[in-house]
Specification:
The complex is a heterodimer of chains A (263) and B (75).
Chain A: H1 2-50, H2 54-63, H3 67-97, H4 106-128, H5 142-174, H6 176-197, H7 211-249
Chain B: H1 2-11, H2 23-45, H3 58-62, H4 64-69
Classes of the chains: A mainly alpha (263), B mainly alpha (75).
């Protein structure tokens, strides 16, 4: 009967991820596409200025999928798959966290899960290896940059999990408040050390790329992820609360459970 | 953590703590769904960038804008 609860949570997580993805796509289209177009224009202007066959080469590359398709159906595919996949993962992280973090309702646990996911999957890696618009990177270093970016996500997620476990272990001795502060401070300290020692992306942005455009692009990227995770946390919280309400009412001794609502 | 404890106890005095789901029940779902989701994320975030499962650049070009705006290194 627990399995049907997990299944119900997974379905709701993917649904919440889909809804969050739709809103994130709207933000991406309205706020994110102008700086993407802007940097492609910069790239083409630089290529035209340089004067060799770069323009036609670049044009041929862009033709594989046209810009109007990339900025609508292509963008929607990327953001929605991202939303559903991470919504599913987050719902299972929630399944582990539920009832283990302290006296939190399902709704509050969902909000905490979403905040933790936003911080560890996006924000921390973003601070070290921020998003870069098209035309900015050096194609020769894509392998190194990709490895470092995924390594940073992995590191930040593992450190986040470690911090939560450490916080729960410390809670009986220090109290919830101080244990949370201690674990949080430990997370920040280790992330800071990792940021100091991991190699930087020297060539992720070409010299001479307009700083204002880069700023606009990165703020748009941050906004997309903030909207995605905020909407996910709220929607999944409502859905999970409804699914688990009868369970929660049964309180601790989980012996005589009435059958939980199925998906 | 502690602030939500306070607000929960203020608004509804005896909110029961939700029962934890057994780890052995969640784990198979987490492993299987986690793997599937990571494969999906790989195709959005990295395919035909640093590494390629399929030849060409069609996947890369299709998710190009999403890849940039979601924060992945693209090219």
């Amino acid at each position: 009967m627990y399995a049907s609860t997990v299944r119900g949570l997974l379905v709701r997580g993917m649904l919440a991820g889909l809804i969050a993805g739709l809103l994130a796509f709207a933000v991406a289209y309205v706020v994110g596409e102008p700086p993407v177009d802007g940097s492609i224009a910069v790239e083409e202007a630089q290529a035209a200025h340089a004067g060799h066959g770069a323009v036609s080469e670049e044009a041929a590359e862009e033709e594989a999928v046209s810009r109007p398709v990339q900025s609508t159906a292509g963008l929607a595919t990327g953001v929605l798959v991202y939303g559903v996949a991470l919504g599913g993962i987050a719902s299972l992280a929630f399944s582990f966290a539920l009832g283990r973090l302290g006296r939190f309702s399902p709704r509050a646990t969902a909000a905490l899960t979403a905040a933790a996911a936003f911080t560890t999957v996006y924000l921390v890696p973003f601070l070290k290896y921020p998003a870069t618009p098209p035309a900015v990177g050096n194609p020769d270093t894509i392998g190194k940059r990709t490895t470092l970016f995924f390594l940073m996500i992995l590191l930040s997620v593992l450190l986040g999990i470690a911090a939560v476990i450490a916080g729960r272990r410390l809670a009986p001795r220090l109290g919830n408040w101080n244990a949370t502060l201690t674990a949080g401070a430990g997370f920040v300290a280790v992330v800071a050390v990792a940021c100091l020692f991991l190699p930087t992306n020297d060539d992720s942005v070409k010299a001479g790329f307009p700083a204002a455009l880069l700023w606009e692009f990165r703020i748009a990227s941050l906004a997309i992820q903030a909207v995605l995770w905020a909407v996910f946390g709220i929607v999944f919280g409502v859905l999970a609360q409804r699914l688990l309400a009868p369970r929660a009412a049964n309180t601790r001794p989980a012996v005589e459970q009435t059958a939980p609502a199925t998906g | 953590m502690a602030e939500a404890v306070v607000s929960a106890s203020v608004s509804t005095p005896s909110v029961p703590v939700p029962a934890a789901l057994p780890v052995r029940t969640v784990l198979p779902w987490a492993v299987f769904v986690g793997l599937l989701a990571l494969i999906a994320l790989y195709f959005v975030g990295a395919e035909q960038g640093a590494t390629s499962v399929f030849a060409g650049t069609d996947v890369h070009e299709w998710v190009h804008d999403g890849r940039h705006l979601l924060g992945f290194p693209c090219h």
